[in-house]
């Protein structure tokens, strides 16, 4: 009985932690629409208006988050910062959680990326 | 004493040669000035035009030419869910199907140091503009059904 209780408490605490950390694609969608990402990255974030802009749909979420974070810290950061006049300005208002949500939403979109030699 | 006079003689002859050469050259220049302006102008225009043409050729990538150039890319980008570990752990981006110009510009940014990942900087540093354009076209052309690289 005692064992079952402790196990239940442990499981529920793990569950709670996971819920708190899980990125929300729904919240991400709202942020992507509000940020008007499609105005450059195109319909479905898979048809950029200029070839020099990247397709995003279906990209790995942790890479998308890393890229957003790199724009947020800016090119002055010698380890991973990245400079871009447009992206650098757009991401400043986002928290880490917001960027996780955005990444989760974009990764869920249907894209045409392939991994092959 | 003999050495000194030899040096003085040498010095005089050098001066003489230089001054006569200079005079003859400047005379030639003056006499040729009128005749040479037009051909020179034509050559300059011709060079300027071939410069433009060369530039336009340079940025045009060739996917087939990249068959032999992807050996530095495939070790990470061709492995599903391969993870980079500096300074964070994250999966290296999928680049098959990405826009060609974006790939080429990313490589150029790594080469210049505008993008920071150490491995990518080292690799991009060894690439020419033509290599970058070729690699961009190679990965942009990849689809689920595209043929296997015969060299990989």
Q: Can you describe this structure?
A:
- The complex is a heterodimer of chains A (117) and B (152).
- Chain A is mostly helical.
- Chain A has one domain (23-108): Cytochrome c-like domain (Cytochrome Bc1 Complex, Chain D, domain 2).
- Chain A is 57% helix and 0% strand.
- Chain A has 6 helices and no strands.
- In chain A, helix 2 (25-35) crosses helix 6 (96-108) and helix 4 packs antiparallel against helix 6.
- With 152 residues, chain B is an all-alpha fold.
- Chain B folds into 2 domains: 1-58; 64-140, Cytochrome c-like domain (Cytochrome Bc1 Complex, Chain D, domain 2, Orthogonal Bundle), CATH 1.10.760.
- Helices cover 61% and strands 3% of the residues of chain B.
- Chain B has 5 helices and 2 strands.
- Chain B has helices spanning 2-58, 74-77, 100-112, 118-124, 129-140; strands at residues 83-84, 90-91.
- In chain B, strands 1-2 form a two-stranded antiparallel ribbon.
- In chain B, strand 1 (83-84) and strand 2 form a beta hairpin.
- In chain B, helix 3 (100-112) packs antiparallel against helix 5 (129-140).
- Chain B is globular and about 65 Å long.
- Chain B starts with a helix and ends in a 12-residue tail after the last helix.
- Chain A binds chain B through residues 48, 50-55, 58-60, 62-63, 65-66, 70, 75, 77-83, 111-117, and chain B through 70, 74, 77-81, 86-102, 105, 114-117, 142-144, 146, 148-149, 152.
């Amino acid at each position: 009985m005692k064992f079952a209780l402790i196990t239940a408490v442990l499981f529920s605490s793990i569950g709670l932690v996971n819920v708190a950390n899980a990125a929300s694609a729904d919240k991400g969608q709202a942020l992507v629409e509000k940020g008007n990402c499609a105005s450059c990255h195109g319909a479905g974030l898979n048809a950029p208006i200029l070839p020099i802009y990247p397709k995003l749909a279906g990209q790995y979420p942790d890479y998308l988050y890393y890229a957003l974070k790199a724009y947020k810290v800016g090119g002055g950061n010698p380890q991973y910062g990245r400079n871009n006049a447009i992206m650098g300005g757009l991401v400043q208002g986002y928290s880490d959680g917001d960027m996780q949500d955005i990444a989760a939403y974009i990764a869920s979109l249907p894209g045409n990326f392939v991994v092959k030699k | 004493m003999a050495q000194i006079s030899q040096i003085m003689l040498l010095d005089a002859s050098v001066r003489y040669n230089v001054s006569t050469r200079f005079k003859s050259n400047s005379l030639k220049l003056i006499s040729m000035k009128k005749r040479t302006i037009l051909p020179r102008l034509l050559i300059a225009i011709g060079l300027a035009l071939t410069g433009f043409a060369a530039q336009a050729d340079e940025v045009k990538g060739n996917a087939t030419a990249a068959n032999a150039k992807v050996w530095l890319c495939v070790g990470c980008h061709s492995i599903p869910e391969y993870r980079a570990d500096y300074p964070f752990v994250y999966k290296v981006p999928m680049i098959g199907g990405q826009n060609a110009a974006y790939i080429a510009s990313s490589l150029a940014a790594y080469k210049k140091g505008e993008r920071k990942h150490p491995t990518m900087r080292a690799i991009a540093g060894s690439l020419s503009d033509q290599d970058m354009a070729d690699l961009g076209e190679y990965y942009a052309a990849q689809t689920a059904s595209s043929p296997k690289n015969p060299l990989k």
